[in-house]
Amino acid sequence: MPRLALYRLPMAHPADLSALRALLAAGEVAARDIRAIIGKTEGNGGLNDFTRGYFTQSLMLLLAGYTGETPAELAARLPCVLSGGTEGVLSPHYTVFAAVPGGAPGAPGLAIGTAFSPPMLPWQVGRRAQILAVAAAVGAAMAAAGIASPADVALVQVKAPAVQPAALRPEDPAPRSTAAGPAMAYSRAAAALGVALALGEVPADAELEAALLADFSLFSNRASISSGIEVVANEVVVFGQAAGWAPGPRLAVRPLADALDLPGICAAFTAAGLPATPQLTAADQARLGCVLVKGEPDRRGTVRGQRHTMLGDTDLDPQRHLRGALGGLVAGVAGDGRLFVSGGAEHQGPEGGGLIAVFAT
Amino acid sequence: MPRLALYRLPMAHPADLSALRALLAAGEVAARDIRAIIGKTEGNGGLNDFTRGYFTQSLMLLLAGYTGETPAELAARLPCVLSGGTEGVLSPHYTVFAAVPGGAPGAPGLAIGTAFSPPMLPWQVGRRAQILAVAAAVGAAMAAAGIASPADVALVQVKAPAVQPAALRPEDPAPRSTAAGPAMAYSRAAAALGVALALGEVPADAELEAALLADFSLFSNRASISSGIEVVANEVVVFGQAAGWAPGPRLAVRPLADALDLPGICAAFTAAGLPATPQLTAADQARLGCVLVKGEPDRRGTVRGQRHTMLGDTDLDPQRHLRGALGGLVAGVAGDGRLFVSGGAEHQGPEGGGLIAVFAT
Amino acid sequence: MPRLALYRLPMAHPADLSALRALLAAGEVAARDIRAIIGKTEGNGGLNDFTRGYFTQSLMLLLAGYTGETPAELAARLPCVLSGGTEGVLSPHYTVFAAVPGGAPGAPGLAIGTAFSPPMLPWQVGRRAQILAVAAAVGAAMAAAGIASPADVALVQVKAPAVQPAALRPEDPAPRSTAAGPAMAYSRAAAALGVALALGEVPADAELEAALLADFSLFSNRASISSGIEVVANEVVVFGQAAGWAPGPRLAVRPLADALDLPGICAAFTAAGLPATPQLTAADQARLGCVLVKGEPDRRGTVRGQRHTMLGDTDLDPQRHLRGALGGLVAGVAGDGRLFVSGGAEHQGPEGGGLIAVFAT
Amino acid sequence: MPRLALYRLPMAHPADLSALRALLAAGEVAARDIRAIIGKTEGNGGLNDFTRGYFTQSLMLLLAGYTGETPAELAARLPCVLSGGTEGVLSPHYTVFAAVPGGAPGAPGLAIGTAFSPPMLPWQVGRRAQILAVAAAVGAAMAAAGIASPADVALVQVKAPAVQPAALRPEDPAPRSTAAGPAMAYSRAAAALGVALALGEVPADAELEAALLADFSLFSNRASISSGIEVVANEVVVFGQAAGWAPGPRLAVRPLADALDLPGICAAFTAAGLPATPQLTAADQARLGCVLVKGEPDRRGTVRGQRHTMLGDTDLDPQRHLRGALGGLVAGVAGDGRLFVSGGAEHQGPEGGGLIAVFAT
């Protein structure tokens, strides 16, 4: 039976797949077992961040040489979830998630399942069509993983398409927004509420499209979303407990109340079996498999009552501000900068906060 | 006998002195008792950050209305140490340090003393002349405070001048550097080694000018330096124990090994009587007086063996990267973003690291 | 009778008024004759650009020493129109406009008139209230100048308030936008249509509030607007022909079709008596009094059919892009970087374009 | 006999080769005839600009499908000269230069020749080894083109390697600089003096290594250099007159005195047969083949005596400033933003200036 395996690998630049190439060449990882890649590249994280697409193209070229598919075929079935922006102490890296055969049966293990929605047309992004497409893809990914119930889902990671202005055609309906920030935010928001819908975290009859970026009382505590122009469909990766999987890594997911929620961060590490007192021991650092974090510049302009300057800065994008700060905090606990910290946590965790997921091996 | 008092005040923008104005109007602070101001403004923290000068001008205008001096006279005797850059969760604020009469005698208390070096000529910045000028000013500030020995000095905060290209005249010797980053770094480095010299942390016969930005084995564990074009002299503020001062706030100063040194940060808070477990309790947050932190993007390109991207980023200044990350980490412990976090810790604490000072009331 | 006089002065930094100080000290300019200041400071030009406020504070302090008013009184009657951002070859500078007595009668001369609207509340910015307030102030400024008819108005320069998030109070109605870019854009748009209304360039019964940032067929060909948080009222400066003024400088104002409209730029210089063939001669450069330019990144994403990247850049603000490019073009014609080039030409000139005003002495 | 042909093509993003793909598919261009690609991508133009590498990877993948080589083999023989940064009105695009057979004999035509130097080791960049390697490659490229004499060379375009920090190994000698700006500048400087040496524009016995970024009286009036981490060798493209080539496009190259040298720009267009009066006519715009421009922020801090702010800006890279301004100026003359405008003109044209090359078809 399959067992989930994680490989957290460094990259020297966005096209550097040498670490994975070495594992494949040595036979330590089989290309056909790879289910998803989640990583951080060193771009600006915005609409015009092309480091994500550059990594994706390089990855698919490498793996296509092993699987016999074309790079395009591979890109249409293998989720590659990249978040740009390694501000501060964050370190460019990627985690390869594989389903390795031959796992020993035992208690239900941590399963991975993936699915792609149909490609989104520009005008569908940030609208009801995307919400429903993501919700359906979450269901498909659960089925692929053999996860029986929404209650067994621990985390849903989505890479959602952002509207690429160059892709617009005059005959198309207008997109929700072509401004760089909102174009990405609406896509994240729709994907987050799509996850919430699939997991039953919001009422099935809620007016979800109207709630996007408006009603932040609706959110998922298990959704982590990145958006970008390098994908055209919603790429969904679901993690959860399933009977058909051998015990493997441990995964703890916790909401974050705000960008200063050090207790929440420590709780997630501890729940994953890596006690933070306040920093992981060296031995536990070696067992750290992957950390995913979402957060956002609080739109009310303050954090715990003190004014922040993230939202009105003409020089530095708000999400770059946020990733630097939240990344610095989580890295201090982990003792390690190889973290997937992503800005824009709209409808992902409570307003002004976000969530953290810790994989321990 | 005097007692040190601290007032940590918010600012709505760099010219907003309304909080101090209210304290002065209410008689809660007497202008003549104010010894120094240390704060963070929301500029870029670089050579062309004018938020520092704007705050200083506004401050001196306000206080001059009380002391009877001209703003220029006041600016020449009252240190106003500003660091630009409130990346991430950092919150613009300033701390007013006052020597309040009528303190109750007791054990030696925390004293404050200040001094100004003569104005520096552009070519003197980052050279031996500045090192010696700072060392002399540290001695003068100790004397002003009544601090008997370098061993009794806890912290020296300096605002050092950076070369303003517009101030250069053809007849002057060339400055050490006019490039924005090095111009500020050399000034910080010279001031740091000036403090180290005054405190006996480096050999008196060391070739200090040659060591600037070159030999990082020479450093001070008690120096915190900011530089900027808004000052023309080295403005020095010394804190330490002195018999003539009533017991007042508690001050703990600790080196930071690197930008992930969460244990070191917690140790400093705990030593100041504010146990970090991992975050200060709400009660202890109310007793937090002021936090000063220095750090830097490790020039070796890695933090704990993992590559960082701070030094080669054409879009985002390395010090903005650093302040965001280190600020996020310390703010998580403090539960508060009103922190003086300043980048560029050359010769201030160990290489790649820095230091932290916590005042508790 | 009065004659308009212009003094274009350099600044070494945003608080450097030394050039005007020297003119005042020498008696070459009388403070009481000064009617307006229009200039460029070296900030980022955005919501968090404090170089404009710093210059204004410094200017009012200087002039108050001459006029006997307080700086606050002066700031409430003397327009100080600053645009941040000296990208590329643009050079920080300011032009002092004065009405000098003793002009020789002749043909109607170029007049200047100024007026302030009442202070705007945050929620009024970018709404009908601001449009009407600006229109009324334009009328008042015309009256102050003795300009008889809208047809005689050559140019209206306005500094309009942008919503300062820190100024919002919970009890106030919500502002039109608190996002940095739109907050400034709505204010510029409302002021532009206010000018258009006053000058009869749009129908008096048009639904102007609904047209803001939506219907770009409504615009003024004689409005140049900057917005910023450093002002609270709409500060209006009107230039035009009036019988009561002695012949003085010549002013030519022309619309710009787009950011490549070199023929339009040359036409404006030539109309001001400074033939551009293609660059001004050295003799004519000495007669150049002041140049005001508005332009914008074309919101359709192309310039003359070729894709531009100004609007989707996460690193560099669109207006910084625009000012650099348009500034470089006009500076090439003028042979001089001391130009007031300002981004955000919403409803000021044709869509995607803007306008240029050239004063020659 | 061969004839030089140019195809200036748009790109929707850095991996968009659709325009060239269409030409290849239609048989309008034969992959084997392509000699070089020169283009602009929409990155930041700095050390961490990966849009150049992304385009190169995409291009080589496309062409390898036609030539039967591997992408790596192709990349080692086909120069792909990319400059990042399309500030302001600049439009991402690339020009394909091909040697098309079957040209009609006539007067000596415009020839193209290319050569690669051996790969540079990091420590060789910005040193004598690079200067000599470029000089040798220029000679090889001339020979490949059949250009008989340095006097017949019109322009040498070089893409030179910048030191990639991740490529450094402990056992290597230290590189000239690892700081982002200087690392690129030293490489450009060495390549420029390598061209100057090959063309006899500097004395053969000059101390060229010592002159790099120090003695700007040594320069080439025919060298245009870009540097970047995406190449490992110096890739050289030489254009000039040769007897073995059929008459083809016309090429005019002129130095630029400074960033305001509009007369110099107009002269280059006019010399190429495209009179600028001041803007090209629509008919002549259709004949515009390719424009290459180099310029730089004047290191003396002024342009024609007026202070500029490009060099001390912590927010915006000096070369981004420059490209925006110079690009805006040349685009105004061309009436077109598809220009290769590149910053950093060290030893390329006179100090503070640069050069312009105009191809007309």
Structure notes:
The structure is a homotetramer of 361-residue chains. With 361 residues, chain A is of the alpha+beta class. Helix content of chain A is 29%, strand content 26%. Chain A is built from 9 helices and 14 strands. In chain A, strands 1-4-2-3 form a 4-stranded mixed sheet. In chain A, helix 7 (262-271) crosses helix 9 (318-334). In chain A, 66% of the residues are buried. Chains in contact: A-B, A-C, A-D, B-C, B-D, C-D. The interface between B and D is medium-sized, with 21 and 21 residues.
Share of helical residues of chain A: 25-40%
Gap between N and C termini of chain A: 18 Å
Secondary-structure element string of chain A:
EHEHHEEEHEHHEEEHHEEEHEE
- Kindly report the greatest chain-chain contact and the residue count on each side: C-D, 47 and 48 residues
Question: DSSP helix count of chain A?
Answer: 9
**Secondary-structure content class of chain A:** alpha+beta
Shape of chain A: globular
Strand count of chain A: 14
Flag low-confidence runs of chain A.
none
Main sheet summary of chain A: 4 strands, mixed
Q: How are the strands of the largest sheet of chain A arranged?
A: 1-4-2-3
Oligomer classification = homotetramer
Strand content of chain A: 25-35%
Rg of chain A from C-alpha positions? 19 Å
